[in-house]
Specification:
By secondary structure, the chain is an alpha/beta fold. The chain has 10 helices and 9 strands. Strand 2 and strand 3 form a beta hairpin.
Length: 317
């Protein structure tokens, strides 16, 4: 066989599923080599589908990072669930990310059911079905027996309840960057031969404004306590490069739901808002590779998570 004939270009869409805080965004950010999605330990860190692209000489993988699947209690929650389900419609692989565990929780049961429904629809169109990959993240926190039991537990559960088996099961540690190269190769092995969907330099379809807003929201998630982050959105009001190209001026508004929350976000003498601004500016400068002048404002919009007009304005369309 000739050298050229042996080089098959693989491509496809990989939908990343998982309950909140299992490390979906962390894994995706590491795989593509760039921070696109916000990362924190809080639920609702990822609120909408984020599409990223990785291309090398093996092919092109389009990752679809979904909101953590959980019970929807607001219109924002409904949007997040719809966004997660929507990514499955175009998926070539479903990559379900979990943590080492000795039981199947409510969130995992919902995901298994969703995978089962999607697989049935795909099977009607494609006899080969939809490839399923189980990824056990945070493997550095458990011993080999726990990892082994987790693999069996989930594969048995999926088969008993949905009549499906995982095509591959891997364990990784995103924070330690362990076994991620093997994960990437596994994805290429599972993908079909296909075209290049995006230019080879494309990393995401997110705009710089959207990424900047994600960075600011992440700093709010990391620095604020309790339930406040759940009621926060970030809107980029202005993003403009100065005529001499030396600095990009950015003005952004942090939206919250209560006056009391506004006071906490601002902090004593503006200390918390300043802290969020300094941390955000540094990451935005790294992204844009230039100096940034960042100004932050805080506005109160009571109940915005249940108002369609606000959801659309803040990018949840």
């Amino acid at each position: 066989m000739s050298n050229n004939a042996s080089k098959v270009f693989k491509s496809g869409f990989v939908s990343i599923l998982g309950r909140p805080n299992v490390g979906k965004s962390t894994i995706m950010n590491h795989l593509i080599g760039m921070k696109i999605a916000a990362v924190s330990r809080r639920a609702q860190t990822t609120r909408k589908k984020i599409q990223t692209v990785y291309t090398d000489d093996r092919g092109q993988i389009v990752f679809l990072d979904t909101p953590g699947i959980n019970k929807a209690e607001t219109k924002l929650g409904e949007f997040m669930m719809d966004s997660a389900e929507d990514t499955l419609k175009t998926a070539d692989i479903i990559m379900w990310i979990i943590e080492p565990s000795s039981f199947i929780g409510t969130g995992e049961r919902v995901i298994a059911e969703l995978i089962g429904k999607t697989a049935q629809k795909i099977r009607k169109k494609n006899a080969e079905g939809l490839p399923l990959l189980l990824v056990i993240n945070k493997s550095d926190t458990a011993d080999t027996d726990v990892i082994g039991n987790t693999k069996k537990l989930y594969d048995d559960y999926l088969y008993e309840n949905e009549g499906l088996h995982f095509d591959r099961i891997l364990d990784v540690s995103a924070t330690k960057e362990e076994n991620l190269d093997n994960l990437m190769q596994t994805l290429y092995d599972m993908l079909p031969e296909g075209p290049m969907y995006f230019d080879e330099d494309t990393v995401t379809d997110e705009t710089e404004r959207e990424i900047a807003a994600e960075y600011i929201r992440e700093k709010c998630l990391r620095n604020l306590d309790k339930e406040i982050p759940h009621g926060i959105a970030v809107l980029i009001d202005k993003m403009r490069e100065r005529p001499d190209g030396s600095i990009i001026d950015i003005e952004a508004t942090i939206i919250c739901e209560k006056e009391s929350h506004k006071g906490i976000i601002i902090g004593k003498n503006g200390s918390m808002l300043k802290k969020i601004g300094i941390q955000s500016r540094k990451e935005i400068e790294d992204l844009l590779e230039t100096k940034v002048n960042l100004k932050l404002w805080v506005k109160v919009r009571p109940g915005w998570r249940d108002k369609s007009s606000y959801l659309k304005e803040y990018g949840y369309k």
